[in-house]
Amino acid sequence: MTDLLTGKTILITGASSGIGESAAYLFAREGANVVITARRKPELDRVAEDIAAGGGNVLAVQADTTDAGEVQRAVAAAVERWGRLGGALNNADRTQGGGRLAEVTDETFDSVLETNFKGVWLCAPNCRR
């Protein structure tokens, strides 16, 4: 452990799988208090249980990063639990699902933009609390 993250509170979006999940384990092992968020509650709860079982400090908050109110709720829960945030990993993302560009619907395109760009935009100012 390097002590760089010890006692810091880090918000990680999209933490129910992939890079977000791996980052949550790593940050917790490095001593951070990790606030993990995702839309998928069962997967999020599994990650939180694994981190806690390994002795990590974790708070799981189901949240959709495209919803400003849900982002604010997650940040507020972190601040209530640990006083302040020390950083964030805005990892939540959505892909168009493969296939040809001509097959991508406007609805899918809007969903990708909302998650991949608006989600980061909403988290950034809220994480400065």
Automatic annotation (TrEMBL):
Superkingdom, taxonomy of origin: Bacteria
Stored Pfam families: adh_short
Matching InterPro entries: NAD(P)-bd_dom_sf (IPR036291), SDR_fam (IPR002347)
SUPFAM superfamilies: NAD(P)-binding Rossmann-fold domains
Keyword annotations of the record: Oxidoreductase
PANTHER family noted in UniProt: 5-KETO-D-GLUCONATE 5-REDUCTASE, ALCOHOL DEHYDROGENASE, PUTATIVE (AFU_ORTHOLOGUE AFUA_3G03445)-RELATED
Sequence similarity: Belongs to the short-chain dehydrogenases/reductases (SDR) family.
The name this protein goes by in its record: SDR family NAD(P)-dependent oxidoreductase
Lineage: Bacteria, Bacillati, Actinomycetota, Actinomycetes, Kitasatosporales
